[in-house]
């Protein structure tokens, strides 16, 4: 049996969503509330998520083409110390392009990140320490 102190650290599961804030006119908000009250949606968030997904579905072909053309990774892309060390040893600088969530692990130093990451383009969310964000600020697009 492995003791807790000798086990590899568990990676935290990244969140599956990002919180945003929107402003709606009173009439639009009232109409959303009426649909919720009538049981069409469980709450305002359910309505908004459904509306966004339905609208995105109307643009599926365009989204696929743009993702392919811009060479974006779709979904989650995580970078740890070992990934960046491997890039440094190979003499490569990474050009990170993600549609979704990009995570630079919290144990990645700002120095390692600046040595190995040439640019970051994220359509969605980027999770990285404040030090790494600051060090890469000019490379984040």
Report what the structure shows.
There is one protein chain. The protein has 141 residues and is an alpha/beta fold. It is 42% helix and 21% strand. It has helices at 26-37, 44-57, 60-69, 81-90, 110-116, 130-135; strands spanning 73-79, 94-104, 117-127. A three-stranded parallel sheet has the order 1-2-3, with helices on one face. α4 (81-90) links the parallel β1 (73-79) and β2 (94-104). It starts with 25 loop residues before the first helix and ends in a 6-residue tail after the last helix.
Give the topology, please.
Elements lengths: L25 H12 L6 H14 L2 H10 L3 E7 L1 H10 L3 E11 L5 H7 E11 L2 H6 L6
Parallel strand pairs: 1-2, 2-3
InterPro entries: Arc_rbn_hlx_hlx (IPR013321), RHH_8 (IPR041088), Ribbon_hlx_hlx (IPR010985)
Pfam family, one: RHH_8
Protein name: Arc/MetJ-type ribon-helix-helix transcriptional regulator
Which terms would index this structure?
6 helices, 3 strands, elongated, alpha/beta, RHH_8, 2 domains, single chain, disordered N terminus, Arc_rbn_hlx_hlx, 141 residues, Arc/MetJ-type ribon-helix-helix transcriptional regulator, Ribbon_hlx_hlx
End-to-end C-alpha gap: 47 Å
Q: What Rg is obtained from the alpha carbons, in whole angstroms? A: 20 Å
How many strands?
Answer: 3
Total domain units: 2
- Amount of beta strand: 15-25%
How much helicity do the residues have? 40-55%
Strand order of the largest sheet: 1-2-3
Rounded mean pLDDT score = 90
How would you sum up the major sheet?
Answer: 3 strands, parallel
Count of alpha/pi helices: 6
Order of helical and strand elements: HHHEHEHEH
Structural class: alpha/beta
Low-pLDDT sequence parts: 1-10
Write down the overall geometry: elongated
Pfam family, one: RHH_8
Organism: Variovorax ginsengisoli
Protein name: Arc/MetJ-type ribon-helix-helix transcriptional regulator
InterPro entries: Arc_rbn_hlx_hlx, RHH_8, Ribbon_hlx_hlx
């Amino acid at each position: 049996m492995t003791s807790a102190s000798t086990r590899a650290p568990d990676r935290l599961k990244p969140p599956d969503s990002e919180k945003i804030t929107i402003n709606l006119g009173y009439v639009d908000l009232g109409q959303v509330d009426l649909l919720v009250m009538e049981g069409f949606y469980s709450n305002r968030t359910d309505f908004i998520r459904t509306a966004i997904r339905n609208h995105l579905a109307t643009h599926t072909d365009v989204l696929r083409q743009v993702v392919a053309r811009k060479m974006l990774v779709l979904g989650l892309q995580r970078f740890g110390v070992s990934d960046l060390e491997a890039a440094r040893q190979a003499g490569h600088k990474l050009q990170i392009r993600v549609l979704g969530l990009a995570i630079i692990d919290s144990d990645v130093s700002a120095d390692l990140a600046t040595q190995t990451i040439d640019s970051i383009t994220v359509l969605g969310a980027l999770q990285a320490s404040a030090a790494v964000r600051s060090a890469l600020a000019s490379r984040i697009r």
